[in-house]
């Protein structure tokens, strides 16, 4: 097998797969952030906490209730989405017409509370979650063994991202959502319950983060800090794609995951900062992001 710059092709393709997996998580988390900010104007800094809560809900369903991965794939996003509804009704609905900084500070405080509670209940060490039996094993593609579960993560994440983009950008429901956030009084005059639409929009963005947590649970250790270590990178991805841009969040998430994976091969020392370097370059060139509006 040939080498590229002295690096075996198997290593490069392995990092490409890892980059696609990370990019899929970035895309789904960034998508949830973009939905919430683009439609509600809230900078949801608790997004990493909801991602972590989705992973813990998955682990609890297995360890406590003896339910499997496929049930968790449905129940975990629904349960975390319900928590999102409660928080939106109690706190966030009062902040839609004020400076986004207030929403950022509130959600940051909520994320710290969630991390502290789960650290007190489960401890700081990670919890393992097994790969479901149906998705165990690997594909032999000649030059490497391809884990079935990682392929599933890529396909499932990108499919969910595409469906979400299609619903918001190409359907009547999405048009109504966008209209309700831009001119709520006019939309309410047509008999549409705008507060309920806003509530379910926030719950949907939160559920996307929880779903990413479910998909990540068998790959990484489930811990209270797993969200805080990821949310800063995801915010950088959203800024690069353009705050509020659904398509920008998806494309920039996947692309930056792949770039980060290749950086680990060719220049490992820069892998932790390459996303932020790209963010700085993009902001100097286009302050609104690649797909954002000025």
Walk me through the structure.
A hairpin with a 4-residue loop joins strand 3 (138-140) and strand 4 (145-147). The strands form two sheets. The chain has a two-stranded antiparallel ribbon with strand order 1-2. Strands 3-4 form a two-stranded antiparallel ribbon. It has 294 residues and is mainly alpha-helical. It has helices at residues 9-40, 47-63, 69-90, 100-122, 148-170, 172-182, 184-189, 194-216, 228-241, 246-266, 274-285; strands spanning 3-4, 7-8, 138-140, 145-147.
Helix/strand-derived class?
A: mainly alpha
Helix content: 55-70%
Count of strand segments? 4
- Find the CATH topology: ABC transporter involved in vitamin B12 uptake, BtuC
Query: How many domain regions?
Result: 1
- Record the strand order, biggest sheet: 1-2
SSE pattern, N- to C-terminal: EEHHHHEEHHHHHHH
CATH architecture: Orthogonal Bundle
- What fraction of the residues are assigned to beta strands by DSSP? under 5%
Q: Roughly how many Å is the radius of gyration?
A: 19 Å
- The average pLDDT is 87
Shape: globular
| The top level CATH class name | Mainly Alpha
Euclidean distance between termini CA atoms: 48 Å
């Amino acid at each position: 097998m040939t080498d590229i710059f002295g690096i075996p092709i198997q290593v490069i393709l392995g990092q490409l797969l890892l980059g696609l997996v990370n990019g899929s998580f970035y895309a789904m988390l960034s998508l949830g952030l973009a939905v919430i900010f683009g439609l509600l104007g809230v900078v949801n800094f608790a997004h990493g906490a909801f991602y972590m809560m989705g992973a813990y809900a998955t682990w609890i369903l297995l360890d406590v209730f003896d339910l499997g991965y496929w049930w968790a794939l449905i129940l975990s996003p629904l349960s975390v989405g319900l928590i999102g509804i409660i928080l939106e009704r109690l706190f966030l609905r009062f902040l839609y017409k004020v400076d986004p900084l207030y929403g950022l500070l509130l959600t940051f405080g909520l994320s710290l509370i969630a991390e502290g509670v789960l650290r007190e209940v489960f401890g700081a060490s990670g919890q393992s979650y097994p790969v479901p039996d149906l998705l165990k094993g690997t594909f032999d593609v000649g030059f490497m063994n391809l884990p079935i579960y990682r392929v599933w993560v890529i396909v499932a994440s990108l499919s969910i991202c595409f469906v979400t983009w299609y619903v918001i950008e190409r359907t009547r429901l999405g048009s109504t959502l966008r209209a309700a956030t831009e001119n709520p009084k006019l939309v309410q005059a047509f008999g549409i319950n705008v507060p309920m639409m806003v509530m379910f929009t926030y719950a949907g963005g939160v559920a996307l983060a929880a779903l990413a947590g479910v998909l990540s649970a068998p790959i990484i250790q489930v811990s209270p800090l797993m969200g805080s270590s990821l949310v800063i990178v995801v915010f950088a991805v959203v800024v690069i794609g353009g705050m509020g841009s659904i398509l920008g969040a998806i494309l920039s998430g996947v692309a930056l995951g792949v770039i980060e994976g290749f950086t680990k091969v060719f220049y490992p020392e820069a892998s932790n900062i390459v996303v932020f370097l790209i963010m700085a370059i993009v902001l100097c060139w286009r302050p609104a992001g690649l797909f954002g509006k000025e």
